[in-house]
Design a protein that fits this description.
about 280 residues, mainly beta, Immunoglobulin-like, 2 helices, 18 strands
Amino acid sequence: MAQEHEQLPWGLGLFLTVACALSGCLGSDPSHKADLSILNVSNPAVPLEVTAHRSSDTEQRFDEVLPFGQLVNAKSLESGVWNFTLENQTRMPAEQFSYGLGKDANYLLILYGFNQETPFADSGSSPDLWKQSFYEEAKSFLGGMEVVTAKHFLLQQKLLRLPSAKLDDSPKLRLAVFSPGKNEFIVDLIDKAGTHHQSPRQGFSEVSDWLKPNAGETEFSVRYADSPAQVGNGTIELPQGSVTTMIVAGQSPSGLQVLVHQWKDQEATMIDAGKSNN
């Protein structure tokens, strides 16, 4: 699996601060910062607001409104532990969370899952997104509960580290799936040299290892793992030294999108690569 940083509870901030201090990521040299991009692919496709401050210096902070699918420009932040909070949520607010950011490191923070309780509080309309344990079913039968959501699909965060790349390095590309549900997806690439590359199948919140196609114009197709039905396809330019993440977002079957995040020479760009025709 690709390298990633799982969400950490707010209470671990002190521990992370000590750990970062021991590893040297809390240095004050302004030339050694972390670059952080943030992407909202949560459902439904509404803006989210995120605030953050450095654990050891609350004056270092930022506040951003994140439209769905639009990249917030990479922020150059002092390395160390940063505490994040999501605001303006309805009935299902995300908990506060913390991440340690290393010196000279590049990151993509992805917000995914369901950010609201409605209109998805209906097991009949979205049966693949709902489940009940035996205890919950019994309680429902006795009249104590109407609907129970699978917490796995509620609003979450994932921090992906972007590997360092020299301008003459071969491009890297991976597939990340953040569409709530049980479907799995695959990306197929045919690079400029005609070589075929295929990712392993990936399910919700999973990120593949890196594919390493030849640089240049590359044909791609993102499809369901168990059928030929495509989510998105087209061509994409993969320059030398680029690091690309293809993201399956939205809700199956009619609202799926493929979003493309590309990092090259300390700059990030987003491309809307198409919607499902299903």
